[in-house]
Amino acid sequence: MDINQSRNITVLKSVETEFMIYKRRWLVLIAFCSFSCSNAFAFVQYSPILSYSAKYYNRSEEDIIWFSNCYYMTYFFLAPLGILPLEKRLDFAIMGGSLITVIGEWMKYFAFQNYYYALISYIILGIGQIFILAAPAYISDKWFPQHERTIATSIGTFMNYFGLNFAIMFAAVYFNDIESDQIVERINFMNIIFALINTCAFVLCLLFVRNEPPTPPSLSAQTEKFSITKSYRGLIKSWRPIIDIFSIAAIIGCSWAYNVVISLLLEPYHYTQKQIALVSICYSCTGTVGGIIASLYVDHQIKLNIKPNYDRFIKGFITLGFIGMIVKLLIIKNVSDQVIIILSGVIGLGLNAFVPICIQSFIEKQFPSFELAIVTAMMQMSNLAGFGISYILILPQFGSSQLLVMIVLISPFYAYMLFIYHTKYHSSMSQYQTFRINDQFIQYLIKQLISTRSKQFIQANTFHY
Fold first, then answer.
1. Phi, psi at 38, each rounded to 5°
2. Distance from CA of residue 233 to its chain's centroid?
3. What CA–CA distance (Å, rounded) separates 326 from 347?
4. Within 10 A of 265 (CB to CB), how many other CB atoms are there?
5. Contact 134, 79 (CB under 8 A)
6. Phi, psi of 197 (to 5 degrees)
7. Residue 223, C-beta contacts closer than 8 angstroms, at least 6 positions apart
8. Is 270 in contact with 164 (CB distance < 8 Å)?
9. Nearest of 154, 433, 222 to residue 307 by alpha carbon
10. pLDDT in tens, 208-230
11. From residue 161, how far is each of 213, 330, 360 by CA, in Å?
12. Do residues 354 and 314 make contact, with C-beta atoms less than 8 angstroms apart?
């Protein structure tokens, strides 16, 4: 009897709690995606055209890579400052971040060929990024039901990759086989185009981003989370979350660094700028498509009340990327560029597709820690790792061995993720338990109803002598 009463109470609480899903959630996500996408343009816009960019600014190619390093370093040092604004007013924080990005893009355009003014503009763009990298998981928690959270996080994350793809493709096509006297004009035109697109994204954020829905969409959104300070303390209270973050960050940082220095990786093998651009696009696109498909499958499992197997996707994807890098290292001198493009797609699928799945997995492990705080910490370390790997790879003493160096650097972290990392389902457990209790209680009611109806039928049709 006590068990049934406790079940009744759980069900009543579940029934009395009203969750609502609003169509506006997609407008909020689309507006954020436009901001994330356009902010990413500058990160890799010079990667396929390093030699042209070096001539434009009259600097070395290594100096041009420092533009991307500004993204890394500003996020690492300033990202915690973005947590509180996002928590208090998601809408104002995203609008403010988009406005900062617009200012940075226009400053980059008006800097023209002044390297140091351009460097300052990249620092400003990096400040805009502090409102992006951790936000998709938070937006999905505030606006989306449990069975749409992974795909919402995935879309929000991969629209940043879409921005990378667009910038790479634009640079590759627009700068294909140009004369030296056209470099200044074309880079100026590219910068003003990117500034205008960022301005449009800012307008979309003003129109559609809202702080939160009137009614929470899920049990997770309603759950009281730890404070920012307590969430950070939870990450350092034992060795396991520390190593988790370092390992995840090393692989994410490697995936970012690979895209930034891809020209340096391929130039020793006499690849043209067009070929380098194709490799970059294939690398980013396969990760985007694979990550979205995997996220849809995970959300489908959650919708069916099946506990998702995050670990299978995480370990499978990173193994694919790691093996792809080793194969590429072994055969790059002896195969055609078409084979290298395909291999780069395999590497991109492995190193990029696991990111949103891994974010959701780590949120599950740390629940009820505040997702903004823990994802920000993860992205801080990822930016530090990306900066460190990029810096190491541009050192002249490594020559044409950059890919080997990258493999050696991430090998211990890959081994940890493959053999030791394991998801613990804290966030969804209460929801799954509630579903199971509801199912059991409904079955109990049906049995009681059938039993009662049967007794009434028997009594009504029994002859009394």
1. -70, -30
2. 23
3. 10
4. 21
5. yes
6. -65, -40
7. 368, 430
8. no
9. 433
10. 999 999 999 988 787 888 888 99
11. 27, 28, 18
12. yes
Residue 135 tokens read as 């936000």
The CA distance from 320 to 325, in Å, is 9
Tokens of 190: 């590219």
Q: What single letter denotes the amino acid at residue 183?
A: I
The whole-angstrom separation of Cα 105 and Cα 343 is: 34
Q: Which of 377, 370, 366 is nearest to 427 (CA)?
A: 366
Q: What pLDDT was estimated at residue 436? A: 41
Residue type, 5: Q
pLDDT tens column, 347-406? 999 999 999 999 999 999 998 899 899 999 999 999 999 999 988 888 888 777 888 999
Neighbours of 422 (CB within 10 A): 13
CA distance 164 to 11: 47
**Token pair for 373:** 């705080």
Both tokens assigned to 197: 């697109």
Copy the structure tokens of residue 434: 């509630």
CB 206: neighbour CB atoms within 10 A? Answer: 14
220, with CB counted inside 10 A (0-12, 13-18, 19+), is: buried
Residue type, 433: Q
Q: Is 178 exposed, middle or buried (0-12, 13-18, 19+ CB in 10 A)?
A: middle
Assess contact for 142 and 235: CB atoms under 8 A: no
> Taking the model in full, what pTM does it have?
0.83
Nearest to 22 by CA among 152, 154, 150, 156: 152
What does the block give as tokens for 410?
């991430």
Q: CB neighbours of 369 closer than 8 A, spacing ≥ 6?
A: 225, 226, 230, 231, 234, 235, 363
Per the CB < 8 A criterion, the answer to whether 48 and 65 are in contact is no
